[in-house]
Specification:
By secondary structure, the protein is mostly helical. 68% of the residues lie in helices and 1% in strands. The chain has helices at 2-25, 34-41, 58-72, 86-90, 117-129, 133-146, 151-163, 167-180, 185-197, 201-214, 219-231, 235-246, 248-261, 265-278, 283-295, 299-313, and strands at residues 97-98, 110-111. A two-stranded antiparallel sheet has the order 1-2. Helix 7 (151-163) packs antiparallel against helix 8, helix 8 (167-180) runs antiparallel to helix 9 (185-197) and helix 15 (283-295) packs antiparallel against helix 16 (299-313). The two termini are 13 Å apart.
């Protein structure tokens, strides 16, 4: 019996440490939007377009995230994309570049200015996937110039400009894509998230709501809409979209985490308690409740939540 109790305590300690590390990851400076990182640390999808799908076990990624973030504090990133100026962007209109392909494609070859719009689009997409943003902008600009109605070229240009920090150019490219295909949910999501990242929350909500109507089960769109609503202080509405994205448990946890980020501890506690009612053994909810109750002057309730972690681990 004594050994079983010690094992339960050990398991609880490991789970609590992992939960704390996962929480800390959201406060460490990382690439991408800070709020979206918080949502993604819980295993949900948020943010703009992803160039490469993340493979592997989702739970493993959740626990790996804090350690990856910690490692970035001590690693100099020599390959970091450098910020591009407006003048740089203007010079990309007619520059020929080398096409990049993966190992399954044809060897790299130069793309001449006489190539078709779709060929420039394919080349630009390859460069974007490879992280060669300047080259991608050159090719995608050529594709859009040759065929102004080529929606994907405008959409990917928006992605590339976003990566270079050129918010106005990104917005312009996304809007051109939306004009050509007003019912493309992913382009609306890209535009909405770009607006959100640049503090235009009301416009972001408008675009993301339109995207959610077109793709009512898209997790990334729903979570992005939830984030934008949080920034407008509409947390109950945000919860509805978070819950639609990944279920009531994650809906409560994600809403609580955002409230906590904004310093609204009492409101965060309510959502963590709702999460605990759905899953009484939720280690993350219990850990945050323990910390928040202690921080708000209720140490007994904090200790009760902490004890529940050990009890759940011993089941």
């Amino acid at each position: 019996m004594r050994n079983r109790r010690l094992l339960a305590i050990l398991i609880a300690l490991v789970l609590t440490t992992a939960g704390t590390a996962m929480w800390s990851a959201s406060t460490i400076e990382r690439e991408g939007d800070a709020d979206a990182n918080v949502i993604e640390d819980s295993g949900s999808s948020a943010g703009g377009p992803t160039e490469k799908k993340k493979d592997g076990n989702k739970v493993a990624r959740i626990f790996a995230a804090p350690f990856k973030a910690f490692g970035k504090l001590f690693r100099k990133d020599d390959n970091k994309v450098q910020r591009m100026t407006e003048k740089d962007a203007e010079s990309f209109e007619s520059v020929g570049v080398v096409r990049v392909e993966d190992s399954r494609s044809e060897p790299a070859r130069k793309i001449g200015v006489a190539s078709s719009a779709k060929e420039h689009l394919a080349s630009g997409r390859s460069f974007l996937l490879g992280g060669q943003i300047n080259e991608a902008i050159s090719e995608l600009s050529m594709a859009a110039s040759l065929d102004p109605r080529l929606t994907e070229a405008h959409n990917l240009l928006g992605v590339a400009y976003d990566k270079k920090g050129l918010a106005d150019r990104a917005k312009e490219s996304y809007e051109r894509a939306v004009k050509e295909e007003p019912e493309d949910a992913q382009t609306l999501n890209n535009l909405g998230f770009s607006l959100y990242q640049n503090g235009n929350y009301r416009a972001a909500v408008d675009r993301l709501k339109r995207a959610a109507k077109l793709a009512p089960t898209d997790e990334r769109i729903l979570n992005n809409l939830g984030l934008a609503l949080c920034r407008l202080g509409k947390f109950q509405d945000a919860f509805k979209y978070f819950a639609r994205a990944t279920g009531p448990l994650n809906g409560n946890l994600n809403t609580a985490r955002m409230l906590e980020r904004f310093g609204r501890d009492e409101d965060a506690i309510k959502y963590y308690e709702d999460a605990r009612r759905i899953d009484p053994s939720s280690t993350f909810a219990l850990k945050r409740l323990s910390d928040l109750y202690k921080r708000t002057g209720r140490p007994e309730q904090g200790q009760t939540a902490a004890d529940s972690i050990a009890i759940s681990a011993g089941r």
